[in-house]
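ok here's the first one, seq then struct tokens
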Amino acid sequence: MGRLVVVSNRVPVPDKGGIAPAGGLAVALKVALEEHGGIWMGWSGKSSGEHEPQPLAQLQQGNITYALTDLTDTDFEEYYQGFANRVLWPICHYRLDLAEYGRKEMAGYFRVNRFFAHRLAPLVKPDDVIWVHDYHLIPLAAELRAMGLKNRIGFFLHIPWPPADVLFTMPVHEEIMRGLSHYELVGFQTDHDLENFAGCLRREGIGDELGGGRYSAYGRVFKGDSYAIGIETAAFAEFAKKASTHKVVKRTRESIGDRSLIIGVDRLDYSKGITQRIDAFERFILANPAQHGHVTYLQITPKSRSEVPEYEAMQRMVAEQAGRVNGALGAVDWVPIRYINRSIGRHILAGLYRLSKVGLVTPLRDGMNLVAKEYVAAQDPDDPGVLLLSRFAGAARKLYGALLVNPYDIEGTANAMARALSMPLEERKERWKTMMDYLLEHDVTRWCDDFLKDLTGRPDLPGEHADEARVPYPEEAGIKASD
């Protein structure tokens, strides 16, 4: 393959010292970009007001060119705040009641994707491979095709894909489905997401499965598959071991004393099940009087999209709920819930994960949830904690050593907390090892290699799909591409 071109809504730009922001995805894609040479293009996070954005800002770091574009205030409001986060996000998380469709926002979404395409196309060489990420940029391949680009283009969705009855409530669902058909490869987090996508194709005769992971739709042939994203497992495990001596982690350990620590780490979002989790913790304490004063629940929830009214309201609701529980159950020398509404450094989080007896990852719906994987990787092999995991998180399809819970079942989740805290050491070790072995084998580099091998059709790239043939371009398959 030629160079790799990555396109995402935001870009993890290295600082002046050349250090990129932490995170498994950024690490894996940076390695792939360095290997092949390439471009990482996306929104700068800055606004140009109502003026046309300046030309792309380009930063060269080794073999990687970071290409950033500003957006106008109108673009940000309609594309990002509007259609992406008030239509696609709630619908993909099964929250039809929160989707607010507007033609202006829909038009802005497609307009910004066209804008991205026009800024990216001059940078692309004929043999480049393009990898587009997430729901913000679904129409990007169609826009690039309209400009004449014939490169192989892949798409990976980091959030869930809903069933037809949910997706088709969106007035522009056909345009979204058509946009995906312009990719050579469409990747999802889980087999359930892939099944939902196939169901959407079949429902109204949009397309069909051709076998071998190949699909047809709108006169095109492409491949679809599931690729469970991982983390940099071995590195994070070592990171957590060292982080246990960090001064903040040490002070936390001292302040907790001999109490058991339960931890939840989530971006503030209605999909994360935070209010249900607090209810479950309250139920757990009420049902287990012996635990009164002997367990502390730490919920770390950085603010998210606070400019969107639903998120601002949720921030108040979670804070009030935590305060109510502390007021009702707390004592002079014990605060049941420690609620932190700001970002905590990843190095500190790693140490806090390792310190915690129970990790609560109980979203109402989630694409994968890497917190679950980080919690497992951070544990002490000689005394690991227990992962409580929602069956509606993508990670539940792979982490079989977790205690699976239904986050809507408050009493069931409370009972699982009690079971986790009383679980014998040998069972905890066995469950942890099952998950850790999987995470070591299926880390974020493996995920990246698997996807790129399937996109490029190169069996020499490592991955679990190496026996599968390259998906042909539509014209190679004898199918005429429609406009």
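and now the second one, same deal
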Amino acid sequence: MVEPIDEVTIRPATPDDAPDIADVHVRSWQEAYAGIVPDEYLSSLDPQQRAHRWRELLAAGPEDRVHTLVAHAGDRLLGFASYGPSRDEDARRGEREIYSLYLDPGTWGQGVARELIRSVVAEVGEQTPLTLWVLAANERARHFYRRHGFQPDGVERLDDVGGAQLLEIRYRRG
């Protein structure tokens, strides 16, 4: 049984959040991408290895222009979102990109992702163009992003994930 979440707090991530972010990151990938990404790759994901990378990223701070927000309920990290300047070749000046948005699978459907995406939009500005990439086979995520004002913009790419060539679709808001 999933415990209801009373109050979600969104705040900037710190290096101390790295282990919890890494844990959520790995568990979310393993749940969301089961049947999409090769099982061997998903089972090889290591939270400790990810924590090291997250600690380095977060220690660099927003000076390198990547911002990460975390969602908490009490002392429990529920999810995170990272964003910054768009990395796409055709990006317009000032365009931002959501690099990642992942939740503890036990919190799916409880409004945590909604709070994170609203916080990202508020930070970048309602009128700022915002993009993200989503696996074509991830219907749950695609539906979520459409509900929050993102639409496919016609740009697609193949990405090698765990040895499989997977189709990604770019979504745009604004």
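notes on #2: The chain has one domain: 9-131. The beta strands are 9-12, 67-73, 76-85, 96-103, 130-135, 151-161, 164-173.
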